[in-house]
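JOB MANIFEST
job_type = single_chain_structure
chain_count = 1
residues = 258
[input]
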Amino acid sequence: MVHEPKAFERFAIICLEKDVQNAHYINDKFYNLSLQKGLDIRVEYADICPVLDKAAQHEEYLLEAFASSIQNYYNKKVLPTIQASNGAIKHSNFIFLVIMPDHTNHQDFYSFLKNKINCDSPVISQFVANRTIAKDNDRIFLNIIRQMNAKFGGDLWRMSFGPEISQQTMLVGIDVCHKGKQSTIGFCATYDPNMCKYYAQASSQPVKGQEIISSTILSDYFQRAFQSYREFNNGAMPRHIFIYRDGVGDSMRKQVID
């Protein structure tokens, strides 16, 4: 069981022509598991969007072919559905499941297409490798269904809080990661009573290694987080805010407070 099951009603699988059989297998497997395991997650059969096999001959062509197939489906199916619904259906009601072909660099493939989807056809996406499907492991498929449910905004698990914690509490996490060429700010803030749903944002620091985050950036992040909280809670604002901030030593405490 999951705490907040969602229905997978608008769902598309993108794969090479030679992997269409695997796409049909996923359709059947997801549908049957959602019925048999008592998840209460209703999984409808997905549209299947095949990409020409010849695109797999070159990595560059392969990436562009998948991106084109995704964009075509988005333009022909997603956008018209959203527009015809007069706001009742949103981008977040759709999900693309991409089957990653064998003999390709999965990290490059994932990074390129994930960015493409987020920028050009902003719907939820899930990636699965062919070799994962070949394992034919129900536990793996169930975990994928749970991941997709979570991406739809459905809580898988919830914590039980004591009476000391108000139902109008926001939990905030802030950190700076210095891995890579730039230092990157990570920010998230919960906006539901169970502290499972959260607004998230990230941006790069102006200087590599900089730990302190400017008040301008933090002010913008908190304003957006409060807006998410207000929208979810019918105009109410949090009464209590807990902030977790990692990476600041004792010598920087006064600077952070100031």
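[summary]
The chain has two domains: 10-151, 169-257.
Residues 169-257 form a domain with the Nucleotidyltransferase; domain 5 fold (CATH 3.30.420.10).
exit_status = 0
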